[in-house]
Amino acid sequence: MIYIGIDLGGTKISGALFNTNNSILLRETLLLEGKGGEEVGKLICKVCEEILKKGGFDESDDKCIGVCVPGISYSKNGRVWCPNIPGWENYPLKKELENRFPNSNITIESDRTAYILGEVSLGVAKGCDNAIFIAVGTGIGAGILIDGRVLHGASDIVGATGWMALKPPYNKEWDTCGCFESHASGTGIAMQAGKVYPEKVTSRDVFEAYDKGDPRAIAIIDEAIEMWGMAAANFVSLFNPQMVIFGGGLFGPASKFIDRIYNEARKWAQPIAINQCKFEVTQLPNDAGLYGAGAIAIKNEQE
Amino acid sequence: MIYIGIDLGGTKISGALFNTNNSILLRETLLLEGKGGEEVGKLICKVCEEILKKGGFDESDDKCIGVCVPGISYSKNGRVWCPNIPGWENYPLKKELENRFPNSNITIESDRTAYILGEVSLGVAKGCDNAIFIAVGTGIGAGILIDGRVLHGASDIVGATGWMALKPPYNKEWDTCGCFESHASGTGIAMQAGKVYPEKVTSRDVFEAYDKGDPRAIAIIDEAIEMWGMAAANFVSLFNPQMVIFGGGLFGPASKFIDRIYNEARKWAQPIAINQCKFEVTQLPNDAGLYGAGAIAIKNEQE
After folding, report:
1. How far is the alpha carbon of A47 from chain B, nearest alpha carbon, in Å?
2. Residue A120 belongs to some domain of the structure
3. Sheet-wide strand order for A24-31
4. Which pLDDT tens digit goes with each residue over B99-140?
């Protein structure tokens, strides 16, 4: 069987040929260059074609293709919602790929689902059947693998973790992106900083100010740590995972707080469940989405 | 096929013969009378024997038996933890039943899992593949059905909802039973009341005082409503269910607050997910656990 993983990012499409143990045999990358709509669909097909050509395969050979998209994959109709790709509000990606590659088993998943599958197939959670990947970047989302299966939910929007309710009473400033995300994502940390710094600062600036002992930064980061701990505790109590993995752009600079996050979670979580659960920072290579896409292709065939 | 559902309660064992559409054909009940250990296992067998006899079946006929236990069912080894049954810290219930009824397909689930299966097979969530049952009684737990499957997790303790982290900073008074449960379960409401009433009061007393306009009761119940709303919002954002069902002893008197709970949840939850989700109070007959056990027996054969 031929396994192809495709990671659709904001600026490029990365593709790779995988073997069954999730190593990359060869790669292919194309830049998006601001393209949208069907053009992006065709570029994805082109990446697949190049991989097949480089690998010396025939296009009619049976293959499994796993695709990781930065948004939502609607598992029931094969469409995707990718807010950063123009014209991909409800794009029929699966149909497009099936038309181009008829002898293919195609699975499309959200990036957060790809990350958790990447982690359990070759990252820190290797071999786990129950693990959570909390992706903390511009926003916050989670990939959830329980009882050996990734969750989808009624309309494929499980893991909308940024909306976690953690700090009553409700505050209107959370309307746009949720309570947790408004305090503990990259955007959220910058937003909180905007209230206490006269100049415009990024979350990275806040982490640097924290390191220099700036009390304003310390207050913001301490609150984020408390919230990361509470949110992780809620995952532990509700899902009973073997591992909670923090990743995304902020882990990164927040990685050094993983022990403080665990200690905060420990206070709140169901005591047996937290005792059985490890907290880790992602160790996946930079292209987590690509490895996840490969894992999706391989898992797909096994099911 | 013969379908038998068994509900092990704190004081009695209820059993019934079911047909495939989850109606009860005949019943049998035995009292526990304080028994523990193997004696309870034998009583469960006896209930099954009586049902088979009354139904005119032979003991060697193929059958599916679903059992609902008030505690945790360890799916990997067939043992159960039931804190209210003496000697059932780690009781090999599945083995006991398999020894007695060799031609049987036996599945044991926790009561909260039985409740959600009961709801989707014949209650308000009939036909749903994605639904959450939040059981609010002495404690708080949840039965979770996602993508058509009940979740178990690494060690079968998913849904430990009473431990949900909802109100920072952490308070030591939550050590025993968790933040959410310490404010919004029967025990929790009585515990909060203990701080403001000179006499000993139950949660039922607090609901009655609320109806009479007592401001102490109003403050306690208002906080519980906020927390029920936040917790339900977290289920909606994380699991993307079609329905959240409130049940257990407090729903009951708290049923009239379901709209306020929904309105609170609406503030916090991922907006698309909450728009697609209904909140309901359980409509299951009194013996929800028994109907759930029947649903387990029937579902078991279909898998």
Report:
1. 32
2. no
3. A24-31, A12-18, A2-8, A63-69, A104-110
4. 999 989 999 999 999 999 999 988 899 999 999 999 999 999
Contacts of A147 in chain B (CB under 8 A): 149, 151-153
Please check whether residue B222 lies inside any domain of the structure.
yes
Q: What ranges in B155-214 are assigned the alpha helix state H?
A: 181-184, 186-196, 203-211
Which residue range is the domain that position A181 belongs to? 127-281
ipTM of the complex: 0.94
What is the per-residue pLDDT across B155-197, written as a single tens digit (0 to 9) for each? 999 999 999 999 999 999 999 999 999 999 999 999 999 999 9
Assess if residue B123 is contained within a domain: no
CB B288 within 8 Å of CB B282: yes
* Contact between residue B166 and residue B230 where contact means Cβ atoms under 8 Å apart: yes
Distance CA B24, CA B229 (A): 35
Average pLDDT, chain A: 95
Tokens read off for A201: 């600062």
Tell if the CB–CB gap between A267 and B129 is shorter than 8 Å. Answer: no
Strand partners of residue B66? B5, B107
Closest CA–CA distance from residue B29 to any residue of chain A (Å): 33
pLDDT tens column, A253-263: 999 999 999 99
* Pick from A226, A273, A276: CB nearest B168: A226
Mean pLDDT of B26-33: 96
Distance (Å, whole) CA A60 – CA A52 = 10
Residues with Cβ within 8 Å of B73's Cβ and at least 6 positions away in sequence, in order, are: B67, B79, B80, B93, B108, B109, B110, B113, B156
CATH number of the CATH domain containing A95:
3.30.420.40
What is the model's pTM? 0.94
